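Anyone? Bumping this.
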Amino acid sequence: MNKTGKLIAVVTVGTLALTACGSKIESSGSSGEPSKAACGTVNIAVNPWVGYQADAAVIAYLATKELGCTVTKKNLTEEVSWQGFGTGAVDVVLENWGHPDLKKTYIEQQKVAVEYGLTGNKGIIGWYVPPWLAQEYPDITDWNNLNKYADRFKTSESGGKGQLLLGDPSFVTNDEALVKNLKLDFKVVYAGSEAALIQAFRTAEQQKQWMIGYFYEPQWFLSEVKLVHVNLPPYTAGCDADPAKVACDYAPFDLDKIVSKKFADSGSPAAALIKNFQWTNEHQNAVALDIAVNKLSDDDAAKKWVEANSDVWKAWIKS
Amino acid sequence: MTTLSAGAVRRAARLPRSWLFGGVVAVWVLLWIPLHGQDTLALSTSELTSLHERLNDLRDAINNTRGSSPVFSAFFDVIREAVDALTVFLQSLISQPAYGRPVPLIGWLGVVVVATLAAYAAGNLRVAVLTAAGFTSFGLLGYWQQSMDTLALTVAAVLICLVIGIPLGIWAGLSDRLHRVLTPVLDFMQTMPTFVYLAPLTLFFLIGPASGVIATLIYAMPPVIRITAHGIRTVAFSSVEAGTSLGATKWQLLRTVRVPLAKRTIVLGVNQTVMCALSMVTIAALIDAPGLGQVVLRALQTLDVGTAFRAGLAIVIMAIVLDRVTTAARDRVEARYRLGPKARGRRRIVLAGLGVAAAVALYLSYTYVWAAFFPGPAGTGVVGGQVAAGVTDASDWVQLHLGAVTDAIRNAISYGLLNPLQALIAQSPWYLVSAVVLALAWIVAGPRIVPTVAVCLGLLVATGLWQEAMVTLAATLVATVIVMALGIAVGVWMGRSDRADALIRPTLDAAQVMPAFVYLVPFLGLFGASRFTAIVAAVVFAAPVAIKLVADGVRGVPATVVEAATSSGSSAWQVVTKVQLPLARQSVTLAANQGLIYVLSMVVVGGLVGAGALGYLVVAGFSQSDLYGKGLAAGVAVVLLGVLLDRTTQAAARRMDAGTRRGRDQ
Amino acid sequence: MPEPLISAERVPAATVQDGPPALAVSKLWKVFGPRADKIVGTPLAELPRPELLERTGCVAAVRDISFTVAPTEVFVVMGLSGSGKSTLVRCLTRLVEPTSGDVLIEGEDLRAADQRRLRELRRHRFAMVFQHFGLLPHRRVLDNVAYGLEIRGVAKAERLRRAGEVLDLVGLSGYADHFPDQLSGGMQQRVGLGRALAVDPRILFFDEPFSALDPLIRRDMQNEVLRLHHEVGKTMVFITHDLHEALRLGDRILIMRDGAAVQIGRPDEVVGAPADDYVRDFVADVPKSHVLTIRWVMRPVRADDPLDGPELGADVVVRDAVRAVLSSAAPVKVVHDGELVGMVDDEAILRVIVAEEP
Ligand SMILES: Nc1ncnc2c1ncn2[C@@H]1O[C@H](COP(=O)(O)OP(=O)(O)O)[C@@H](O)[C@H]1O
Ligand SMILES: [Mg+2]
């Protein structure tokens, strides 16, 4: 009993000592900062690539700091993000790459989402080689010469043909058809993830290995290693109409924004921000590079960009 | 027709089985020469069968009826909301800002103190210290909040597992009928690779924490049910009978005899469930379950090995803490009731003291900023930044300097083993492979396995992904061979040397709980995007289990037998091959079986690093709406392969065992 | 001096029966195996065990056993391992469900009892002591002894008080707070015994309670049972495979073989008049002078017998009669109920003693 008494005494004294210093936690209701226009919560889907993450970082930063919104980021794949529109789990998809099928389902049929304008980013999908290769074999950037080098692209995975490496299955690809229709002596090999694809390009450049694969802009990795685009037969409108007969390069994408119907109708200032949001590939790559290579947190990267580009974003929240 | 007739097999049954096995393979190779490339049921990635399209339509139909269907509002939504409420509550306690506060109700100090005291109350001083150190390290690594999210989800899943699993386990311990019904269901739940049910789950339970917890439940529930049932079943019959003879009712028997005597075993089940839950919660990051898994996934996108490792380290530490605490709690079960009245009184006083201390810590962490936010630089934590940088440097160095060696290894295995095997399996006509698989299964596992195998093969054909499945099968077999080679080599070494065991075991523990995503990037750097990388990842995941099983088996060989062999002049090699391995045979076959299952459960992860085939399709189905149905079918195909291999190896093990016993009797 | 095989302290079973016997068993069968209920009453039942097993996959563990046990009697069932003793004693409490036959406990049909009634009987009427003790390792000795009372719903203070008394009775005072695995085997079985006694049953069943104990401790425990029987006077059904134990404890002994009864009788009857070669083999090594009463060695009174010799009761054991017989010149008169029933001379005594020499 004596012991307990002592223990309690010690604890009490300690408590008093500890409570003497240190600031107290304030509930946000009584927080000093005056809250701006009622904004509420914005649920932003974050799809698994860093460019998207950059968009989300800047929007979240602005919405929180400038508009006083509460932003919830949800890390989701594209398909799953769209599902979220119907259930209210997702309000915003900031960077949409095409997806006519999803648009049909969720915008036309279920009417739970609406298009919300372009992001200003241009998506360029295509086949790329590491810079050293383009330098030493300049003619390799013409698809007509690919078969000449097919042998050099062989790997343990490509079954005696040249290897054409594909990345994350989230992206729409025509490559199997292209290889066939362009009569290339290549085999499509699936790396399975963006990480695997980037790592492969990185190693190839570092160790001067032969490598050709699917890639896209905007992408932070292009700021680290400037991959070189391989020219396929140029894209003309409608040349990719029949997926089985495709024999031309990918169409350039205008990336766009999608929001849930509910959010669009809510009149939230964040909705206006997102509607007005528009920037360039360079802008995005800068933020993405800070996140991916310089290891800044999303918020810090966004802050850095926001501080340097106030003229750009001021326009987004004006109206 | 190439199928061996039943008569032929029976006639041949007198030949040694290994001859028969070799014979069948030889015939296969001979037939392959003229037949290869025919009827391989190949399907290009973008092609869909009608089954896949029907699955897509089904998905759309479910999606469209979600708002209106009573099944959703009365069943799935209710479950989801209940689970969600529990999860959100736990999160608001320890991880997420809640109730208008910028921080959760309990700050870091409160959590550390309460966890430590709980560890002391449930276990002992040692695990209490470990808990304090472990929990503090989450903050030092810079992942306090993420760790608490992971912990909250794990706790939510484990709570539900226990509330459902323990009663169900007890019931299954009492009722033979329920036990018989439950066993195959649990087998299935455990063989099914975790990724496979993530996509369908989101269809029913949407994305977010609730789905994460439910996915975790499915994975983590079987151990506690199984082990509880086992504990109840193995309670000493004499004690039960004594209770009955005194006129105890069923309920009294359960309360006073069965449950108390099975308690230790039940706590072991809890331990297993906790470990499973933790590993699954990390994977559930794929469907937006919050926590450390998200950090790892994010880091994977930017190839940030250091950050991935840092978060992985936090997961490993959490696993070690939870494991040690539950293990100590198990040992404590017995010690607790042995306390005399005096010790019991003393303990009560100590616990009361601890309670007061906990209350104080809770109050402080509720009220004061310094006790709520973990101190240290945001983002990197006190040591997190250095850890990450160190690991990144090490990984870069290894990739840069070992590239040539690792390329050689990859090419040797790929060209020497994997490609020929894959050509044989995937390029043979489907009927030839089916016939061979049936014949081999019959030879190694007996005729009773044939119907199961036939059904699995038939369903594989029906998924429309036969060739994909065969490519995956080839890689799985190669990985399993490597796992078993490692398992036997390292396992024997550990079984024979205490020092080796003490040295290696912690590494194995860590490898088992370290999320695979953490080591994928360095492996990609070393081996490129290839099937071999997937095999290596699978080996890292599966080898620890196999090694431990073999080591325990070798250790379990009675010392007297080894002594006798040594005293009769056997060399160490002879002791291993003639005494220890044969006597540990059951463990070795179990290791092979478990190795296979573990390798298969990594098929999908393999899909992320170049394994292609089924793994890739599951991943693709997960992220591309067109391929949803195909991905689902691929998941089913993985399960079918699992059932096929699991059943066959288990039956083979049983048969081998029976054979040995018969041989001994004669 | 070696202890007598038959204790002089034994309370003789009530010979005059007022009321029903403590236990009456008739035509009791227990068959294990598939379709076990289709065997009794058919010619199959007559088959020897191995053949029955071969033909039907069934084991007839208990076959057609009948006996009665008088109140306060100690009834011993003896047989080799596998002869069906455990199954028999479990049928008597329905821990094993009999296949056919009747069991009457103090006149009440046990097989007709429903679960509730059966529990009542088990809680109040009889209790059992097991070969492997069946103690609860997570409970103190005191709580183990109180367990039966707890099951019965006795309040805690009361049951602990009662358990304390029983602990004194079985010689474990001072061990109340120990745990079973801190005790020796003999002491553990005392706990088992205490647990059975605590509920104050009218019949005690013992299933080879001392087989797992060392011989010396076994002897102690047998004395303990005898002492308790003397003190509390319960009816006991005692299973053993040890003939010496059977002879020491039993008022009467049932000898089983392959599930069937071979002989039922008092110890001296079993030794003096074995029913068949099986029993004869069993008792061959028993020192007969320790078991047989002089009734078994006396001869009829002849006309020429001198009647001036000493008198001995017919129930005096041979060994105790040796001195009197040998020291008397004339044959000893054997008297039962005041009547002269026979004569014992030196030769008869010596024949018994010499036969025991190896
Ligand atoms: N539950 C059971 N199922 C099948 N056979 C049993 C069972 N219990 C006992 N037996 C068989 O009944 C016979 C008698 O067993 P038991 O009563 O234990 O003999 P004892 O106690 O005399 O050694 C044995 O042949 C035994 O194998
Ligand atoms: Mg027995």
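Late reply, but here is one note on the structure posted above: The domain at 123-245 of chain A is CATH 3.40.190.100 (D-Maltodextrin-Binding Protein; domain 2).
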